[in-house]
Amino acid sequence: MTRILRGMLLATTVLAPAGMAMAQETQLTIESWRNDDLPIWQEKIIPAFEAKHPDIKVTFAPMAPTEYNSAVNAKLEAGTAGDLITCRPFDLSLAMFEKGQLAPLNDLEGMENFSDVAKSAWTTDDGQTTFCVPMASVIHGFIYNKAAFEEVGVEVPKTEEEFFAVLEKIKEDGNYIPMAMGTKDQWEAATMGYYNIGPNYYKGEEGRKGLIDGTQKLTDPQWVEPYATLAKWKDYLGDGFEAQTYPDSQNLFTLGRAAIYPAGSWEIAPFKSQADFEMGAFPPPVKAEGDKCYISDHNDIGIGLNANSKNAEAAKTFLSWVASPEFADLYANSAPGFFSLNSTPVTMQDELAQEFVSWRENCETTIRPSAAIVGRGDPNLDLEMWRTTANVINGTMTPEQAGEETQKGLDSWYKPKQ
């Protein structure tokens, strides 16, 4: 009997603390479109957080990127969304905040680690309220096959004249498609084309803000010239580029059939896992030697608090950690090509990622011109620039017509504040 009582007491002693721990544990769920990042979150990011906060358990629950916008909105409206909402940049997340679905985060510990530019994609138009913690930006440029450049005997171009001379020499050599990009998906042409090289023409933020305040128009030379340059790309994209999809372009490059890939830095990790050749990168060539360079360093991803979360305090603890230098280093080096927006510098371990981020030292940065304010109406400026860029490269529209059509669409609904 004594032995039985002793066993019961021992069982109680062992089980009670475990039961208490279970009662205190908080479960958080993160909604995201970044399904490619699932292993990173499960194997690196979440374990690092939970090691410091064992009472908070986090689940990363991504969905298909193409379904995310509609699906997460439906969940928020139905009250079934997770505690933490991965934030698209600019208007999509702003709309969530304005509907009361995202909580304000001005007073969150760690927000002081971000500049106004870093927070701009998740801050109200009046600059008063920030509603997502900035996580990362993506940078545009060109990735190239180092072996192909060596075989053909070309150097990394710094000016547009050099750039087209490189393309011409690769074309004449005949062993590689000079550049892998298609126009079938349209967004690829604008994102890898116009948004990539355009800042060197309209001078980055100067031009983007000029569109917003009405001092510049899409029919101005600095907005039409990028189309004219892109029209010359047609001769170097290979046969059938008009029917080429985004995955087709990726495959052409990673299989070693194309020498250059107009890129977003998000390609770094997948390209490294697929290509069996060494890659390098260069920024958009400037028009003339000595010109100031500008790059698209686009705020891409943030994370916010579901205003109706039942675990708001635990969620804020997690968000403060996301705002820390520790997370900045961990995320940027776990997902090379997604660059920290934290004001604490991060040293990139991946050489190709470091090449991209090094351009910040010499070039002025900007975001995509259709991303904020002027992209809210109908017709949508972003979609219009997709269409017109693809048409210009295909040769079915002139650069001047592209400028006229996009400006006409913008004028139909947008009136700059005086």
Which key terms come to mind for this protein?
ten-stranded mixed β-sheet, 2 domains, 418 residues, alpha/beta, D-Maltodextrin-Binding Protein, domain 2, SBP_1_CS, globular
Radius of gyration: 24 Å
Structural class: alpha/beta
Identify low-pLDDT runs: 1-23
CATH class descriptor name of the largest domain: Alpha Beta
Q: Could you give a short account of the major beta sheet?
A: 10 strands, mixed
Count of the separate structural domains: 2
Query: CATH homologous superfamily of the largest domain, by name?
Result: Periplasmic binding protein-like II
- As a percent range, the share of helical residues equals 40-55%
Please trace the helix and strand order, writing H or E for each element: HEHEHEHHEHHEHHHHHEHEEHHEHEHH
Write a compact overview of the structure shown.
By secondary structure, the protein is of the alpha/beta class. The chain contains 18 helices and ten strands. α8 crosses α17 and α11 crosses α17.
Structure, described:
This protein has 418 residues and is an alpha/beta fold. It folds into two domains: 167 residues, Periplasmic binding protein-like II (D-Maltodextrin-Binding Protein, domain 2), CATH 3.40.190.10; 207 residues, D-Maltodextrin-Binding Protein, domain 2 (3-Layer(aba) Sandwich). It is built from 18 helices and ten strands. Strands 1, 2, 3, 4, 5, 6, 7, 8, 9 and 10 form a ten-stranded mixed sheet that branches. Helix 11 crosses helix 18. The chain is globular and about 70 Å long. The termini are far apart. The N terminus is likely disordered.
